[in-house]
Amino acid sequence: MKKILIYIWSVAVFTGCLLDAAQVRNVVVTSTAMNKQINNVVITPDRRSSDEKYPVVYLLHGHGMVPADWLEVQPLLPRLADDLRLIIVCPDGGNNWYVDSPEDSQLKYETYVTKELVEYVDANMASIKDRRGRALCGLSMGGYGALRLAILHQDQYSAAGSMSGLVDFAPFPNRWSTQRIFGKAEEHADRLREYSVVNLIHFIRPGLDIMIDCGTDDFFHEINENLHRSLMERHIPHTYTSFPGTHDYAYWNNAILHQFIFLSRHFADADFSKAKE
Questions:
Q1: What range defines the domain where residue 84 resides?
Q2: Domain contains 194
Q3: Domain holding 180: CATH number?
Q4: Does residue 122 fall inside a structural domain?
């Protein structure tokens, strides 16, 4: 594990050309629930043997982003996938908050990410077909999605990481497409409470590893601090970091390396001996 941590910190300052053997490709997956095709950027490591299976990190983008933007946030993702021996799947969530919308029955992104996409990955890739080999991670809207989906689908995922996540809608009514997805805040305050991560933590069971981070100058800093305090009050184990930065690519470029330290440690500690073939 010490070698893994040293490696990640070394690549964090590496600025040369990537010489990894990982494959980056666009994979189109059909969502039966939404009757449409969805693009996903998938990063797979160089396969060293036909028997090798990999844990999967489902990486959820933020509002206004597309999956390919992850390679701008952190160009070293292919190298990390190759050397840490994991698959990275970046689905296109649009601006739809990774939920099955209570306002628009045609939008079922929770079903897509937690069921349809997982089933596709396990059927078509060399993934570890077990919750212990699956994690969610994301930034901003994707940080929200990673925490909420992991909490509500602990049978599917064993870890979640959030960078600058919008974990409480109450201070930010009718912003960033939330009105379209959840309805107007003044008419559906109950929905915003129900869908906010801060109001879901009582569902967390032992065995879900959580990491939360947010920049000290981020407009979401206070709500993430509040989430951290609530988790502490309930004695729910988690990792929380807050270091200088705001809501931008510069912060996430660094933060995602911390997240992969956390996830690599999580997967290294997992026992995959009983995972399905």
A1: 2-10+33-268
A2: yes
A3: 3.40.50.1820
A4: yes
Which residue would you say has higher pLDDT here, 13 or 267? 267
Count of CB atoms within 10 A of residue 51's CB?
Answer: 8
Burial group, residue 189, by CB count within 10 angstroms (0-12, 13-18, 19+): middle
- Looking at the chain, the whole-number percentage of residues with pLDDT higher than 90 is 87
Q: Are 223 and 166 in contact (CB under 8 A)?
A: yes
pLDDT higher than threshold 60 for residue 4: no
Confirm whether 23 is domain-assigned.
no
Cα–Cα distance for residue pair 61/118, rounded to 1 Å? 17
How many CB atoms lie under 10 A from the CB of residue 71? 15
User: What Å distances lie between residue 14 and 10, 70, 72, 76, 260, CA to CA?
Assistant: 7, 17, 15, 9, 16
Specify the amino acid at residue 198.
Answer: V
Counting the structural domains of the chain, the total is 1
Is-above-0.90 flag for pTM?
yes
| Number of Cβ atoms within 10 Å of the Cβ of 236 | 15
What number is the average pLDDT over the span 57-62?
A: 98
